[in-house]
Every structure is written in structure tokens, then in C-alpha cells.
């Protein structure tokens, strides 16, 4: 009987430990979001439409209220990608917003040259993304910097991806 009593006590201790571990719930982690250009379309009027991909790396949903990113294209200051998307993005997910802008003359030429020569257009975005974590009352500003390049999309004139 003593062996059974010991096993019973051990079983109860393991059950209590398991229940205690479950009661704390999942970890609520807020991580720096990221942003990058998914697609850049050169419009007939010379303006650009950027499909900006916003990535939420947090373990909780975030509401993205403001995006303000300086854009360099082909080594030239192009202007600012600025929007107030009021976009809710789930944990460890992403979504896309469209931002229209009028680029500088030098950036327009760099994009036109890349499209005509069917070569990559390097770009850099840096600035801030303002987001509010779920159930938080105060928004937070996150610094964002991303460097990459866009290539002409085959069969889609004026589109870089």
C-alpha cells in the first residue's frame, strides 16, 4: 500500500504542476514590426503606387495607425510613403496597403531606366510605423528600415516587384 500512496501523491503533484503551467496562458510579446515594398507601379501620370507590406511579428494583434517612410529609389530620394491605414493585423501575420506618391524627378528617371533596361531597382525605406498592441491604450512608434530591390514584372508594363 505504501507504494500506491507514493504513486498517488506523485500523480497529484504532476497534475497540479501541469494545471499551474496552463493557467499563465500564452506569452504576450510585442515585437518590432517590419515594412517593405511588395510592388511598385509607375502610373501614366508619373505618380507611383506602392503596395506596402506591413508585417506584425508580435504574438498579439496590433492596430497599425500611421506609416511614414522616406523612400530612396535607385540611390535617389524619391519622397515619403505616408498613410493612416487604421489596419488590424493578427499575430505573426501581414497585410498590404496601397500608398500613392509623387516621386522626385531623379527617382522617376531611375525607375524608368530600370524598367527600360529590365534590371533591378534598388530601394531603401526608413522611418516610423505607429501601432497599438491589442488591449493597450497607448500607441507605440517603431523605427523601420528595409533595403532591397524591385525587378520588372514580366508582362506587366510599369510594374516592379
TrEMBL record:
InterPro entries: LEA_2 (IPR004864). It comes from the Bacteria. Residues 1-23 form the signal peptide. The keyword Manganese does not apply. Keywords: Signal. Residues 52-132 form the Late embryogenesis abundant protein LEA-2 subgroup domain. PROSITE patterns: PROKAR_LIPOPROTEIN. The keyword Signal applies. This is Late embryogenesis abundant protein LEA-2 subgroup domain-containing protein. It comes from Marilutibacter maris.
Amino acid at each position: 500500500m505504501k507504494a500506491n500512496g507514493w504513486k498517488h501523491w506523485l500523480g497529484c503533484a504532476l497534475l497540479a504542476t501541469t494545471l499551474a503551467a496552463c493557467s499563465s496562458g500564452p506569452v504576450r510579446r510585442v515585437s518590432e514590426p517590419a515594412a517593405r515594398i511588395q510592388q511598385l507601379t509607375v502610373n501614366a501620370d508619373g505618380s507611383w503606387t506602392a503596395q506596402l507590406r506591413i508585417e506584425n511579428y508580435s504574438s498579439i494583434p496590433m492596430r497599425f495607425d500611421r506609416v511614414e517612410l522616406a523612400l530612396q529609389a535607385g540611390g535617389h530620394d524619391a519622397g515619403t510613403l505616408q498613410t493612416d491605414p487604421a489596419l488590424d493585423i493578427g499575430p505573426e501575420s501581414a497585410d498590404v496597403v496601397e500608398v500613392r506618391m509623387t516621386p522626385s524627378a531623379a527617382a522617376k528617371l531611375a525607375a524608368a531606366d530600370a524598367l527600360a533596361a529590365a534590371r533591378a531597382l534598388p530601394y531603401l525605406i526608413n522611418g516610423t510605423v505607429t501601432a497599438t498592441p491589442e488591449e493597450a491604450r497607448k500607441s507605440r512608434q517603431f523605427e523601420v528600415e528595409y533595403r532591397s530591390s524591385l525587378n520588372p514584372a514580366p508582362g506587366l508594363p510599369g510594374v516592379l516587384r
